[in-house]
Amino acid sequence: MHIQLRFFASLREALGLSSDTVTVPDSATTAHDVLAVLRARGGVWAEALADASRFRVAVDQRLGTIDSPVHNGAEVAFFPPVTGG
Amino acid sequence: MTVRVQHEDFDLTTELARLRIGRPETGAVVAFVGTVREMNATGVVSSMELEHYRGMTEAALEAIAAEASRRWLLIDILVVHRIGWLRGCDRIVLTAVAARHRGEALAACEFVMDHLSTRVPFLKNEVNQDRVQSLC
Hints:
- The structure holds 2 protein chains of 2 kinds.
- By secondary structure, chain A is of the alpha+beta class.
- Chain A has one domain: Roll (Ubiquitin-like (UB roll)).
- In chain A, 26% of the residues lie in helices and 27% in strands.
- Chain A has 3 helices and 5 strands.
- Chain A has a 5-stranded mixed β-sheet.
- Chain A is globular, with a radius of gyration of 12 Å.
- Chain A starts with a strand and ends in a 6-residue tail after the last strand.
- Chain B is an alpha+beta fold.
- Chain B has a single domain, classed as Aldehyde Oxidoreductase, domain 3 (Alpha-Beta Complex), CATH 3.90.1170.40.
- Chain B is 32% helix and 34% strand.
- Chain B is built from 3 helices and 7 strands.
- Chain B has a 4-stranded mixed β-sheet, sandwiched between helices. A 3-stranded antiparallel β-sheet of chain B has the order 5-3-7, with no helix packed on it.
- Classes of the chains: A alpha+beta, B alpha+beta.
């Protein structure tokens, strides 16, 4: 199935792109499964996405976790912790 | 209930007057203004570019304001958040709550800010240690 990807702030800088599309196995059920496919690209992907505790995940523009369910056509976003004060 | 994400600065007096217009039952308006903190005490002010996740940001802000409206008896809520390049002392966020009584307004304003700072994807993109004068 196809997943729309969005990257923001320092993650976008590290990966060198703000959006992408990835095809993941139909057996993929969560954002973690998408992450596994991205890490398998190696290089900066494996490096920037290595530690899931250092970024947030949103699925279909709703804040979630790497355990959030995904579906064909889902928009999965990765970004650093939000700015708060 | 109004939620705005914008580059330009906001004027507190104007925003609060607008919130109060046509609402004679309003007895309390609580406004929180967040400003960009200076990073050090040497007169060097940091500037940062704040970006956001368009679409998700507005939806998240509206969800928080709606939740506050369910929890307390409120007349109106306004949230204005700036994006783009900001320097020390710049206003960055305004949360204003109108209610009949101060208790609801104070509690709801704090609730909105607490959730805004953790659930809304405003992201610090870059920080420059520019040698610019503080704006205040």
